[in-house]
Amino acid sequence: MPLHIGIKVEMKSLSMQTSETYAYFELPFCRPDKLEKKNESLGEVLNGDRLTFAPYKLEFLVDKDAKVTCKKRLTKEEVAQFRTAVALDYFVQMYFDDLPIWAFLGKVEKERIDDPNEFKYHIFTFYQFEIYYNKDRVIEINLRTDPSFATDVTNDEEVDVEFRYTVVWKETNIPFEKRMDKYTMSSSLPHHLQIHWFSILNSCVTIFILVSCLGTVYLRVLRRDIYTLAQDEEFSGNQEETGWKSLHGDVFRYPKFKYLLSSALGCGTQMLAVMVAILSLGVLGVFQPYDRGVLPTALVIIYAITSAVAGFSAVSFYHQLEGSNWLRVLLLTGGIFSCPLLLTFFFLNTVALNYGSTAALPLDTIVVILLLWVLLALPSLLLGGVSGKRIRSEFQAPCHTTKCPREVPPQHWYRGVITQMALAGVLPFAVIYIELYYIFASVWGHRIYTIYSILFVVFILLLITTVLVSVAMTYFQLAREDHQWWWRSFLCGGSTGLYLFGYSFYYYFERSDMNGVMQTSFFFGYMACISYGVFLMLGTVSFHASLLFVRLLYGCIKGE
Fold first, then answer.
1. Average pLDDT value for residue range 102-123
2. Closest Cα partner for 541 from 276, 349, 357?
3. Is 24 helix (H, G, I), strand (E, B) or coil?
4. Which of 284, 269, 358 is closest to 21 using CA atoms?
5. Which residues, other chains included, contact 464 with Cβ-Cβ below 8 Å and sequence gap of 6+?
6. How far is CA 76 from CA 69, 118, 149, 154, in A?
7. Which of the residues 23, 136, 230, 235 has an alpha carbon 20 to 30 A from that of 73?
8. Which UniProt keywords apply (predicted)?
9. pLDDT tens track for 495-540
């Protein structure tokens, strides 16, 4: 069984880990005459894996004692490279039979306790592999370094170094099916689960308060108004129209820039479909710990396929609003998210190339992604758009719209769009705040996240909270005789994405030790894209919730 090896650069802090990835032989290890690389899948390449076959030969049930890997004389430049790697906490990441193992490159010691500025840098030169097997299956592998075998690289001077390793095989009763359990235990520790369940309980309490408030408004205000109107067959008879009741002729007036709204709703529907699909696969156990590349591959393919959902949703809704230029809507739907994402990717890929990081995708992988977009995403988008055009349906408005729009009364400053967005995003963000720590730690700190079931529950609670907040904000807007709720409901729902992007600043400065151009640009670049996707998704959920609420509300009255 070959041992695949890679190296990760890690800047470690007490609170959080942040990392960059580089090829193993970027450092001056003993390089073989012929460097053999592992064939990576699309997802593994997207994940930054650039594995090569290691110089350590681990043969099944063959023990080795102090086997010499190589001997070499390090130049001054090579010594400086190793010293920098040790100072920055570089560690090696290897895979044996798909089992991951790690080892630090070296250690830093204080030469004198009374002088904190004096440090000694050493690289480990002796690796100890301990492998457990059950019959003909590898169950577990551990890697240890021997501090007594370390070479001093403190000074810029040539050093002779000898790399050695030992291999010990031991039998175990652990079945093959449970060999990954030790990698998932960190996410399922009791104190971690208590935090997750506390987050869910907190979200449930928030939803209960929202439902109570909306129930009170319905019982005390809406129910009374609807009952009064139901008694009068002539809506404008002997009673004065005030509040939301006076908007029956304008509340379903089509919004401005309906082509842009339709495209945003189509793309938001696609984001929702992608999220539901990924979480469902996670709950079903498709994404196993360190099953490298499965999640990125699934994300790319699902996004391409669900382009049909985006095209259908955008074009069908645009036709309901009596739009005619459906091709413009379809093209805008295809580019409203993917174009900013592609621009961000090409910029960050250029940065990674300049730094020599394995986060930079090779040209052939970029070509594969572009082909997937051209041959799968675009045809799916076109198919969905054509289907949305052919399956025509009229806009369901229970009230007729007047020819002349009603003037919106002057509103207080706190009823402006920006203020309402700030208020609307607080509660949905509070629902996911605790869970965000674990998600960020998994994505940016390279920790293991396996409890997709809890994440799915939190996601459902987020959607419910977004719906309830949207309904409440729309009602209060209509109560002030403001009928321009279309865009407002979308922006208020999507404001949670802006809170998410704001949280990324807190995470960057307070919870991580990220620094440098590459780490900063990668973090904020991709967080901007993720936050934008959340903005579109939750904005779509919010809009459709408000649309349903308005239809039900005005369907209870007779407006001619």
1. 76
2. 276
3. helix
4. 358
5. 207
6. 22, 20, 20, 11
7. 23
8. Endosome, Golgi apparatus, Membrane, Signal, Transmembrane, Transmembrane helix
9. 999 999 999 999 998 888 788 888 899 999 999 999 999 999 999 9
What is the C-alpha separation between 309 and 329, in angstroms, rounded? 14
Question: How deeply is 48 buried, as exposed, middle or buried, from its count of CB atoms within 10 A (0-12, 13-18, 19+)?
Answer: buried
Q: At 393, which helix (H) or strand (E)?
A: none
Q: Are 9 and 26 in contact (CB under 8 A)?
A: no
Please name the amino acid found at residue 312: F
Please give the torsion angle defined by the CA atoms of residues 35, 291, 145 and 172, in that order, rounded to the nearest 10 degrees: -120
Residue 191 has a CB neighbour count (10 Å cut-off) of 6
Q: Are residues 145 and 127 in contact, defined by beta-carbon separation less than 8 angstroms?
A: yes
C-alpha distances out from residue 79 to 151, 369, 386, 423, Å: 10, 40, 63, 56
Which residue type does 516 have? G
> What CA–CA distance (Å, rounded) separates 32 from 20?
25
Between strands 91-96 and 99-104, the pairing is antiparallel
Do residues 81 and 22 touch, judged by C-beta distance below 8 A?
no
* Location of structure tokens 């309490």: 205
